[in-house]
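Hey team,

Sharing the enoyl-CoA hydratase run so nobody has to redo it. Sequence (719 residues) first:
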Amino acid sequence: MIYQGNAITVASNGDNIATLTFDLKDESINKLSSAVVTELGEAVQALQGASDIKGLVIASAKDVFIVGADITEFHGMFAKGEGQIAEMLEQVHGIFNAIEDLPFPTVTAINGLALGGGCEVTLTTDFRVMGDKAKIGLPETKLGILPGWGGCVRLPRIVGADNAIEWIAGGTENRADAALKIGAVDAVVSNEQLQAAALDILARANRGELDYQARRDEKTGPLKLNPIEQMMVFETAKGYVAGKAGPHYPAPIEAIKVIQKGAGEERGRAQAIEAKAFAKLALTDVCYNLVGLFLNDQVVKKKAGKYEKQAQPVKQTAVLGAGIMGGGIAYQSASKGTPILMKDIKEDAIELGLKEARKLFGKQVERNKLTSEQMAEKLSNIRPTLSYGDFGHVDLVVEAVVENPKVKDAVLTEVEGLVDDKAILTSNTSTISINRLAENLKRPENFCGMHFFNPVHRMPLVEVIRGEKTSDAAVAATVAYARAMGKTPIVVNDCPGFLVNRVLFPYFGGFSMLVEQGADFQHVDKVMEKFGWPMGPAYLLDVVGMDTAVHANEVMAEGFPDRMARDAKTAIQVMYENERLGQKNDKGFYAYEEDKKGKPKKVSDDAAYALVKQVVKEDKAFSDEEIIARMMVPLCLETVRCLEDDIVATPAEADMALIYGIGFPPFRGGALRYIDAMGVAAFVELADGLAAELGPLYAPTDKLREMAKSGDTFYDKSA
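Structure output:
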């Protein structure tokens, strides 16, 4: 044994070939924590001191290779400042360069995920062989940083600047065939053949058939591009990536600049350029929030995983109510492999649901994600029916009929009598109380909410709503099914609007008051889109549908009359009364025309402005900052109230629900991180100033005032 650590071993075989194996104890994956990086340095030193070694294989004993750096350390590390970040990068560069400079040929055997720092480890070796099911990539830009352990230096020199930019700026996970095509790896084999393939490459290198030293010279020298080629590659890429990334995500463009600046330099100077840019990005709010987002996502997944372990198997499901929503649910279930019955009382509704599912599968075929045969196979997982004939074998039912408590009650009580006693019933309701819907059920413990967001195939969130009598088993089964559908389930407690809609409607309330006081709704949209929302409030209302918004607002007003009930008529109600429902009938705050792809395209409509005038009471001008405050404060306050009322268990779940459910700007981290970033005391002061004019919707809670006084935050700065 050449080296033995907690995560790394180095051993030599009879032919003097050493294997450095990553196998982090007590973990299911390999990751590069600071402790593991230190071990790697010790292992490389041991290799440098070993005699008679003729080659090195870097491998993993786990199902993954290395998933990347330990992201849980990032906030703490980055909080130490630029000097400490530079010191960390210098340490890693020293270790990785030492691997690259070993006096014998080296190869990495990539058996599973090799991401971020894990991918950068593979780039240090002369050769790479990859399992056919493995994936490789540099996703750092998704965390607001760039590859800082040599990825921006080595990858362009191995695969060319254009390919490297695509991988790094896009943050993609790439399959083995794609990696082989651009030369990121030298061979693709089955995992069973990896070790033999790696040893074969080393043998050929030692015989002189493969020139490993030439490989090193390419990686450590300047990038081979003349000035004209450089200009064409980098300037074209910057324009394209800037359009894709948008103004709020600087890392992808910064990564291209780093590759460009380092193109004419040797390894050491190019790495120094990379390190300086990494440290600059690591200290930005965007990076802090995107790392926080990753950590929050891990919290949500861990909680869901615990439920999943307790769940009874969900092998056969059913959706009640076809149409667009039912068809979307059926498609999602079928596409992920859970057979589903799709029941309705009308043949045309069934056909509409099947049409929706066929359309979505058809798009998968067009994008070469599925073959026609695979589409047919997955479609067969959806069984349309007008009767309850096979419901005795169903494990879980999703009721997705019209948003009317009487209709839902009738359907749920009917189906309860036809399913097995252990079957779970769920309601895809967006607003109706789960406790209310459970009142007439014989087994309320088997019932909970399962709120999908529209369009089902795109929106990642599912709210799992626990009623007063809902059992842990019902919640666990529903969470497990949502996960099986590829969704992110977040468990919340029952209240009007649950979590996401309860938080969204104060935002719409802020919008209504702005319009009432003379704000141009199109200008409000532009300001909020510039702030980072995918669409402004007027546009979002058109997408949601004015009828849905009016109904949901009535539920909120009844539940929270002190702050959500309004005496005056709103612009939303005026649109509804004048049958301007939004995209449902091509007219709302905007008019809608079909674009070249057949999708609705919004255009300004004078008729909408004429109607809005009915509710305008003032002619007031608002700055962009005032608009942002008027829109964001009520949304953030309601998120705080949901946390205080135990509707949602943790800040992490609250923020992730808003990001996944309504498109809260990810780079801002969520409503509670937004308050933390502003400072709780500053937020309370802002809210108090607005509440004096606008009323209880803007009034901070007593607990929030206490937090402001004591200097508390929702998140630990190092978490």
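The domain at 3-283 is CATH 3.90.226.10 (2-enoyl-CoA Hydratase; Chain A, domain 1).

Ping me if you want the raw files.
A.
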